[in-house]
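name: query_chain
kind: protein
chains: 1
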Amino acid sequence: MLELKEKKEEQEANVLNVQALEGVTFRSNIWKSYLFHFFMGGHFIAGVLLVFFITWGKLAFFEVMFLQSYFTIMVFAFEVPCGAIADYISRKFSLFLGGISIAIAAIVYSSIPNLGFFIVGETLWALGEALISGTDSALIYDTLQKMGREHEVAKISARNGSFFLTGIGIAGPLGSLFTLFMPIQFVVTAMVFPFLAAAMIALTFKEPNHDLKKQSEKYLIILKSGVKELKSNKILRILAFDLIIVDALVFFIIWTYQLYLKELGIQVVFFGFVAASLTVMQIVFTNLIPKLDENISKKKRFLVFYTIIPGIGFILISMVNLMVIGIILVVTIVGTGFSRNVIYINGINRIIEGDNRATILSTINMIGSCIKAILYPMVGYIVMFNLDTVFLIIGITIIALALLSRVKNEYL
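structure:
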């Protein structure tokens, strides 16, 4: 009996030693993931994106929006085959290919100012996004699972997002400064270096063992299951559409604020610093809202008020032509508008059954992307005639949606 007890203790000790060894082996994946996301945020063009497309690329704004709609569709098209690469070949290989694909896209973008080349560039960038999207999270989860630290996945994922935004916040101003001594197309070409750095970092990841369960669900199955749940669950349907429709409208500030800055007479060299401030405010508001939400009992009233703020911001920028006030309004729209989703997180996750959580969240994201893909060309066409009219229409629509919201306090 004593001998059996000693053998059992020895086995338990061996298991602990193996877990400790694996913890040391895979620990480097965490900080390497931070670096990977930081370099993938090296978008030097962030502050002068529209200037690149319209001035150098000689595209009409409608054509720019068409490209973004096409990009969204292509990400959908690539998601399933790219998911198979990550699941059945290698997580780190998928991340490496993603970085390489986006690096090549930057070269294509900056080669010839032609719509056809831009379409090729968007295709390559969409491929890269699909190769990285979800794969980075899967690698982190598999890594933490090997280390027995799965409970930290939300924290690590949030840090990855912060490092990515930090990368954009640094690269944006640098890109604007680059325009002082190099043609704008070379600013795009320069993005090759951070993306290649990210790709090289991806190759150094320690691949978690492939004894973990692999899944590669067909999007039609995901969509069918998610839509079925949305149809049958009234509360989930209300929360989901209340979230994604306003989000789709607010998102247009990213593609129009540079046109607005140009109308205000702000020089291109300062666009990157405005882009950096947008990134900083997004981080600040996203971290501030959970703390406010915990101390608010009338959540519906808070949600309506919080949604109206970007709506008012859109209306005001359609009328204001003062530089400082205009920048403050743009920053406010981004800070409040892009952090609304935090208010919905608890409500949506509480309603969803655990087994269907990933499927339903994927469906909600897909529907939101489809709405953006449809709206891009429509809004782009109107912008060609009058930017202020677009801002006014978006602002009024957001306020109307906030006031007519069917979300109740107990849903949140």
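note: The radius of gyration is 23 Å.
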